[in-house]
Specification:
By secondary structure, this protein is an alpha/beta fold. The chain contains 17 helices and 18 strands. A 9-stranded parallel beta sheet has the order 6-5-4-3-2-15-14-9-7. Strands 8-10-13 form a 3-stranded mixed beta sheet. β16 (483-486) and β17 (491-494) form a beta hairpin.
């Protein structure tokens, strides 16, 4: 398959609707779509210790791609390969956050935000993924953390946001079981040098996504399309997730370790038993596969038939290794999914989008012969400029579903946002009146408040993202930022949505 064309359709995502939800077994979990999106709130007060925040990712904002001893990452290699990124863009400079982080943290402070989720670039710490730490890389993140703390902002560290050292990919990448040990060593380095100041850690950002798109669909680096490789990568990541947790806690008594999963509330397309079962498989595979491994030491019922342990490279005792209950649960919410059963001979077409992909195989058995479902992106509601349906009730449903399935854990909303291409407007004195983004955040926060009122223990919300940046396969064609970045001169301009969000954070309430 020529994935160059497919990649250009990426940054579309989707999740689900309002309504009742399910029980305690993630394999049987189900959300029931409702024609009514639930009560419309007129305002909301958040808990007094609620953390308002924003998020970035190293590869998307830092630039400085080969400065101060940084090694090559798989995304460096990928973006420097012709035909992979829209417009031939690279992230060599992007927002130049590596050199401008003090200015950018000043924006976070100006917006009254108290949590900043950022990621650390593994090849900036260990250029080849193994061996001694690069002192200049550690020093950079040490200065960033100190700047955050001086501004009264909680440093929230994602340890891996997709930029694997290319040297480790050359050794087989995530399907190579040895990477779990290498990753634990990397985690120990971070904990030893930064654990006195960083207390909140997420080992991975959206592990299903980078495992599947990198090894199962061939749409992200390293561009391999072999479902068995995906299964092996997923298992290695599960082992690495828990080994990293233990490595961090061994060197930092303050370490609180959670997650930053990509999730989408899934709803059956029809009320048929087959569609409901397919929806449960979607939830088990795309939402809680890695969460269940950590919390319970077992994989959920994501497959038609038995779990393919052999294909995954599962070894005796792995259930003990991968069980390391998280201190809190973090996940992203953008939009919804509608799921239907896929059987041989059926055809539902394929769709691809930014943070996930659903590709029909030659047998038209859905994404793969193991899970056999089709996941569709509804377009019933308004769409963002990236083509995502705006569906506010989904965040309520997802938060409540995870709360009920995992005994009401502490939850962090690690990402939530939208792409609109609003730019500085001369008639408004150079302001950026991005009213659609304000409406997006207002409606999503209404529904988050509804979940809090329902008993969910949500302690933070991180708007994606602080800065317009490099958006993976879409290059610079989408703008998710609260801050407009002019990539010609790196000038930053806070959008009207940022100023609105800052007022909400200061008041700790939503007034409509």
């Amino acid at each position: 398959m020529d994935t160059r064309i497919d990649r250009r359709n990426f940054l579309r995502t989707s999740l689900a609707a309002a309504g009742a939800l399910a029980v305690t077994d993630p394999a049987s979990a189900e959300l029931v779509s409702s024609a009514q999106p639930g009560p419309q709130l007129t305002g909301a007060t958040f808990p007094k210790d609620f953390l308002w925040g924003t998020a970035t990712a190293a590869f998307q904002v830092e630039g400085a791609w080969k400065e101060d001893g940084k090694g090559e990452s798989i995304w460096d290699r990928f973006t420097h390969t012709q035909g992979t990124i829209r417009g031939g863009a690279t992230a060599d400079v992007t927002c130049d956050h590596y050199h401008r982080f003090k200015e950018d943290i000043g924006l976070v402070q100006q917006l009254n935000l108290k949590s900043y989720r950022f990621s650390i670039s593994w090849p900036r710490i260990q250029p080849t993924g193994t061996g001694p730490a690069n002192a200049k890389g550690l020093d950079h993140y040490s200065r960033l953390v100190d700047t955050l703390l001086a501004a009264g902002i909680r440093p929230f560290c994602t340890m891996y946001h997709w930029d694997l050292p290319q040297a480790l990919e050359d050794k087989g990448g995530w399907p190579n079981r040895d990477l779990a040990g290498y990753y634990a060593d990397y985690a120990a380095i971070l904990g030893k040098h930064l654990g006195d100041r960083i207390t909140v850690w997420a080992p991975f950002n959206m592990p299903w996504t980078f495992a599947y798109l990198g090894y199962g669909a061939g749409a992200f680096p390293p561009g391999k399309a072999d479902y068995t490789l995906f299964l092996r990568a997923a298992h290695t990541i599960s082992l690495a997730q828990s080994q990293a947790l233990r490595a961090l806690k061994a060197v930092s008594s303050q370490a609180s370790v959670g997650s930053a999963y990509g999730m989408a509330p899934a709803y059956p397309k029809t009320n048929s038993e087959a569609d409901r079962a397919a929806t449960a498989r979607y939830h088990a595979m795309n939402n809680v596969f890695f969460l269940n491994a950590a919390m319970r030491g077992e994989y959920p019922k994501a497959f038609v038939g038995a779990i393919p342990y052999k294909e995954m490279g599962f070894q005796p005792g792995d259930e003990t290794i991968m069980k390391a209950p998280l201190d809190w649960v973090g996940f992203h919410y953008y939009t919804r999914r509608i799921v239907s059963d896929a059987t041989p001979g059926a055809s539902a077409g394929g769709a691809q989008f930014g943070t996930e992909t659903e590709l029909d195989g030659a047998e038209a058995a859905g994404r793969d012969r193991y899970t056999r479902f089709h996941a569709e992106m509804p377009t019933e509601g308004p769409l963002t400029d990236a083509g995502l349906e705006v569906y506010p009730p989904g965040i309520h449903d997802l938060v409540m579903q995870i709360s009920r399935e995992y005994n009401f854990p502490t939850i962090e909303i690690t990402e939530s946002g939208c792409s609109y291409l609003d730019a500085p407007y001369a008639r408004e004195g150079g302001r950026i009146p991005d009213l659609r983004r304000i409406d997006f955040f207002r409606s999503y926060l209404q529904q988050l408040a509804r979940a809090l009122a329902g008993g969910a223990k949500v302690r933070s919300y991180h708007a994606w993202t602080l800065l317009d940046n490099f958006e993976w396969a879409d290059g610079y064609s989408q703008r998710y930022g609260l801050t407009y970045v002019d990539f010609r001169d790196q000038r930053r301009t806070l959008k009207d949505s940022a100023l609105w969000y800052g007022r909400v954070a200061a008041a700790n309430r939503l007034d409509l």
